[in-house]
From TrEMBL:
Pfam families referenced in this protein's UniProt entry, alphabetically: Aminotran_5
Name of protein: Cysteine desulfurase family protein, VC1184 subfamily
Annotated InterPro entries: Aminotrans_V_dom, Cys_dSase-rel, PyrdxlP-dep_Trfase, PyrdxlP-dep_Trfase_major, PyrdxlP-dep_Trfase_small
Top-level taxonomic group: Bacteria
Domain Aminotransferase class V: 22-283, 310-408
SUPFAM superfamilies per the UniProt record, alphabetical: PLP-dependent transferases (SSF53383)
Length: 446
């Protein structure tokens, strides 16, 4: 049975505008059920968590439901799910807490990767620098955009205290060998923090099966509201003593959560996970069968439905990625920098001699949202030779259509086949040297 993308799109009010959204890696569009869950919670009788009044009980139920939902999504015990303002904020606090509670010092080392978003680099670098620990770098291969396993293993030693690595690059989509990296890190006696922000929008994550000590993500990448979520190994979380207010609870995971939780955003997160779990059914895909080929007649556990939805999403998005890659590689002057063997449906490209911001703005005039930047993958962009400018990023989502990919390719082909001229103080300059700040572009066909 084919993936019914039109049925999926009916749930996203923003798509009615006709804009082709290839900006999902920066944050997905939101289904109506998520917005409704947020609004319903805000307008319900709700109070601080407790058991005396109905309002208190609703708050408690909202938190418990959100932990259960994220536990299912990340393959972890719900009682190890921590909510925060953002993944960046969570990781900053975690890094400081780990360094202090585990006694990092000048004899210790931390490993970070140049494939990662800076949110999984800078917190660890800053925490290491604060105690005099050494930072070791595992570098991405600029020719393949891969993070080879040996790039990590060669910088591991008995001094390594933590390895921070992404599950998938938000810039070029590369999916490194997480199992190999985690096994090698643990063999060296190190902890592992996995940034699953980008991957969780495209493929299933299983913290327990991976053996990751800590995993972080952001619901707004997979249809939810703006929050940060971190899940950890229970024994590790019990060891840590984060800075907190004196009267606040010392229970895990609450000891890591500063202040009152945003109940409306937690409700939206639960709704997003439930929507994602039902996506295979929405798209008209068959329910998953067990090992014997039998299909369930009753409701399936949410984790199993999530796995079915992710399988449907991957099949749909990989088909679109192949379409986009083939089209982009056929356009003169285009370089596609997403080259890893295993990657998400996220493509980064540049057009020879043209500032990526120019390409971005011109596509935007055609109703195509494909932003240009380094997208905070600062180290990766520089390792690929793209510097601070980065490239144009094209991200497929469960609601992306083949027709939208065709529109994108037509738009890129038009830009590539054109010569851009900018007015600069009354003097017109050929496109290859057009200043980045020039906003008044005139398209001149070659």
């Amino acid at each position: 049975m084919s993936y019914d993308v039109d049925a999926v799109r009916q749930h996203f009010p923003a798509l009615r505008s006709g804009t082709a959204h290839f900006d999902g890696p920066g944050g997905s569009q939101t289904p109506a059920v998520v917005a409704e869950a947020v609004a319903r919670t805000l307008t319900s009788s709700i109070a601080n968590r407790g058991t005396v009044t109905a309002a208190e009980r609703l708050a408690e139920q909202t938190v418990v439901a959100a932990r259960a939902a994220m536990g299912d999504l990340l393959g972890t015990d719900p009682d190890t799910v921590i909510f925060g303002r953002s993944m960046t904020a969570n990781t900053m606090e975690l890094a400081r807490t780990l360094a202090r509670c585990h006694g990092w010092g000048p004899a210790d080392e931390v490993v970070v990767s140049s494939l990662d978003h800076d949110a999984n680099i800078r917190p660890w670098v800053l925490a290491a620098e604060a105690v005099g620990a050494t930072v070791r770098w595992a570098h991405v291969d600029p020719d393949t955009a891969e993070l080879p396993l040996d790039a990590v293993t060669e910088v591991l030693s008995e001094r390594t205290r933590l390895v921070a690595v992404t599950a998938a690059s938000n810039l070029v989509g590369t999916r490194p060998d997480l199992h190999g990296i985690i096994a090698a890190a643990h063999a060296a006696g190190a902890l592992v923090h996995v940034d699953a922000v980008h991957l969780a929008a495209h493929a299933s994550v299983d913290r327990e099966q991976l053996g990751a000590d800590l995993v972080s993500c952001s619901p707004y990448k997979f249809f939810g509201p703006h929050l940060g979520v971190t899940a950890g190994r229970a024994e590790l979380l019990e060891q840590l003593r984060p800075d907190k207010l004196l009267p606040s609870t010392d229970r895990v995971p609450e000891r890591f959560e500063l202040g009152t939780l945003p109940y409306e955003l937690l409700a939206g997160t639960t709704a997003a996970v439930d929507f994602l779990a039902g996506l295979a059914g929405v798209a008209g895909m068959a329910e998953p069968a067990d090992a014997a080929g039998n299909r369930a007649t009753g409701p399936l556990p949410r984790r199993r439905r999530l796995l079915a939805s992710y399988a449907a999403i991957e099949e749909h998005e990989d088909r679109l990625r192949a379409q986009a890659e083939a089209g982009l590689r056929g356009i003169d002057g285009i370089t596609v920098h997403s080259r890893a063997v295993r990657r998400t449906p996220t493509l980064l490209f540049t057009l020879d001699g043209v500032d990526p911001q120019v390409v971005y703005r011109l596509l935007a005039t055609r109703g195509i949202n494909a932003p240009a930047s380094h997208f905070y993958a600062w180290e990766c962009s520089h390792r690929l030779g793209l510097g601070a400018a980065g490239g144009v990023r094209v991200g497929m989502a469960p609601y992306t259509t083949a027709e939208e990919v065709d529109r994108l390719l037509e738009g890129v082909a038009e830009v590539a086949a054109a010569r851009w001229v900018a007015r600069d103080g009354g003097r017109r300059t050929a496109g290859r040297t057009a200043p980045r700040h020039a906003l008044d572009f005139v398209l001149r066909k070659t």
